[in-house]
Design brief:
single chain, alpha+beta, Nuclear Transport Factor 2, Chain: A, 3 domains, 4-stranded antiparallel sheet, flat
Length: 233
């Protein structure tokens, strides 16, 4: 294996080692002090070499610690609560219009290529026309289905809390899409604040207008007696 260090780095490290060894040798400390010796000042190349060796050592020790321990699952960085920097914003549904616009442009280009081509060829033919029509239709659908999401997750949770008729403890929100026009809809599952919760409910909130589409609440049939710890919010 070839040593990645240059000859100057190796020579500088050897010189530094020799100078420190001379000062640390028995019987030389008194003579060095008597002679008014000053601490050794390593060269820049030697300092860089020592810094690199120290970094390599720390890296190897860190790897050894993780290798010696048992394998454990780790949360991905975006779910690590210790690195939480603020509330999470759900991506807006109108991002669908970006690929829809690309489909429209590609479809228009296919139709234009067919229109300006007089003779049928292997590259531009009836298939090019039908491909352009299909892309235009799909792009138009994407533009219609790319609703702008006006209701955030927190707003939907607040709406659900005021709808089910009980004090909400644990709750979760899920984005779904309703109908052929793919209208964004929040699905809110919520439990009452007792420990364990006595009631549960589900509320569908329109992501565009914020209106409650439908909701249902009932006594909680789930058995939470085997769970430990506090279950209240």
């Amino acid at each position: 294996m070839t040593d990645p260090r240059s000859d100057d780095d190796v020579e500088a490290a050897a010189e530094l080692h020799a100078q420190t060894a001379d000062l640390d040798a028995p019987g030389d400390a008194d003579s060095a002090e008597a002679a008014g010796a000053v601490p050794v000042t390593p060269s820049l190349a030697a300092e860089q070499l020592l810094d690199q060796e120290g970094a390599d050592l720390r890296s190897s020790l860190g790897s050894a610690r993780s290798a010696d321990g048992d394998y454990v699952d780790e949360l991905p960085e975006d779910l690590n609560v210790s690195e939480f920097v603020g509330p999470y914003t759900f991506p807006n549904n109108n991002r669908r219009r970006i690929p829809a616009a690309i489909y429209l442009v590609m479809g228009a280009a296919c139709i234009a290529a067919y229109a300006i081509n007089d003779a049928d060829s292997a590259l531009v033919n009836n298939g090019t026309l039908w491909a352009g029509v299909g892309l235009v239709l799909f792009g138009a659908y994407g533009m219609i289905a790319g609703w702008t999401l006006h209701v955030e997750e927190s707003d939907a949770l607040a709406t659900a809390s005021g709808t089910v008729g009980f004090a909400v403890g644990h709750a979760s929100a899920q984005m779904a899409w309703r109908g052929w026009l793919s209208r964004p809809t929040w699905r809110i599952l919520c439990y009452s604040a007792e420990n364990p919760p006595k009631q549960r409910g589900i509320v569908l909130v329109d992501g565009v207008s914020g209106a409650v589409i439908e909701w249902f609440a009932e006594d909680n049939p789930e058995d939470w007696s085997q769970l430990d710890g506090s279950l209240t919010a």
